[in-house]
Amino acid sequence: MHHSKCSRRGFFKLTGASAAAGLCGPLLAGGQPAAAASEPLEVPTRPFGKSGMDASILSLGGMFDIARNHLMLKQALQWGVTYWDTADCYRYGIGSEKGFGKFFSRYPESRERVFLVTKSDERSPKGMSKLLDRSLDRLQTDYIDLYFIHAVRSIDELDDDTRAWAEKRKAEGKIRLFGFSTHSNMENCLLAAAKLGWIDGIMMTYNFRLMHTDRMRRAVDACTAAGIGLTAMKTQGGGQVKTDSDTELELAGRFVKRGFTDAQARLKAVWENPQIASICSQMPNMSLLMSNAAAAADQLSLSKIETDLMQAYAGETASAYCAGCVDLCESAVGAALPVGDVMRALMYCRSYGDRDRARELFAQIPAGARRQIAMTDFTAAERRCPQKLAIGRLMREAVDELA
Ligand code: SF4
Where does 334-390 have alpha helices with state H? Predict the structure, then answer.
């Protein structure tokens, strides 16, 4: 791994000053970002599984209005954030994919520098072909570096037809690599994918809360042995939790002395594992890009005691985090209720402050299931929940807040 020539501490001070002063003035001077010109910063790369391709360890999540943020894309490229992630279905589906497409059309030389990912909500070969062609058209490119089936909950969603489809699209040169994303039953999906032999990459929920469990370790080991490239998402582990925990105070004191924010420390916790090729982070503004790129490029690791304290904090706040193990709770409910999707919508609203995205996700749940929530007894599901979530209360609160 190579590192930036500039000192991380110096850069962090720079980002703080720029953020406080308002970003655009100093950054736009002379049409070039001043910070990049005077303080070269380089986000490292890691091999992406056995693909033979390298990916920047920080990936630009494209769930925002890309078309209006081309300056961010320019800055990302300058800092080596060359892994870009989008999807056909994102809120700004048209704005996101089309926004990237406009950028590639405006700066054609940039396309080959980017490791480009997009995703299909469709599962059938016919549906995937339709969406892939539409993505290629919107993105104004001839090929996708890594094509994902989006939000897989069970490996049964992939079969021999999926494999044949992926191999044909590779032969045609439309995609280079193939895989899926998952934020439900991640460990089972990873373990099963490692046995298939034809999955190149997976993007999964992975963070300081999940990475040390035996199940997740086994799943990641299996994928590493199978040569599958892994991208972590949802790496903040649900964002801030209100606690009166001494552990949180202790961590805050340590991080501030070392010049980290807690959000940067959570990224670092994931990068500590070399089995993870990249972190996909939604970075809808320059402040986040600066903060995350600085954390990616510096040479500071978490200490053992910081890692241990983060694990302790994860344990103390477990009941505020849904771990995505929906096979456990949904099978206990006795009705077709997508508990995991509701929890994810709540997380977008409460932890990320993205109420629009939360409401959009909640609205995708069938109306019958949404009405069913108020009449359902979640006691059996709560008994099975390893995080000890108050599922019934949270489900009803979600209806009140997001319906
Ligand atoms: S509510 Fe509990 S059992 Fe259900 S997915 Fe979340 S953590 Fe797992």
Answer: 339-350, 355-363, 367-372, 379-384
Give tens-digit pLDDT for 83-106: 999 999 876 556 799 999 999 999
Q: For residue 48, what are its two tokens?
A: 């992406």
Our measurement of the distance from residue 304's CA atom to the centroid of its chain's CA atoms, rounded to an integer in Å, reads 25
Tokens of 308: 């241990």
Helices 125-139, 160-172: axis angle to 10 degrees equals: 30
Nearest 5°: CA angle at 211, between 91 and 79? 55
Whether the CB-CB separation of 56 and 87 falls below 8 Å is answered with: no
185 CA distance to ligand 1 middle (Å): 10
Give nearest CA residue, ligand 1 atom 6. 322
Lowest mean pLDDT among 62-66, 214-218, 264-268, 303-307: 62-66
C-beta of residue 352 within 8 angstroms of C-beta of residue 346: no
DSSP string for residues in 47-103: E-TTSS-EEESEEEE--S-GGG-HHHHHHHHHTT--EEE--TTSTTHHHHHHHHHHH
Pocket test for ligand 1, best of 154, 321, 328 (most atoms within 8 A of CB): 328
pLDDT in tens, 7-17: 333 333 334 33
Q: What is the pLDDT of residue 63?
A: 87
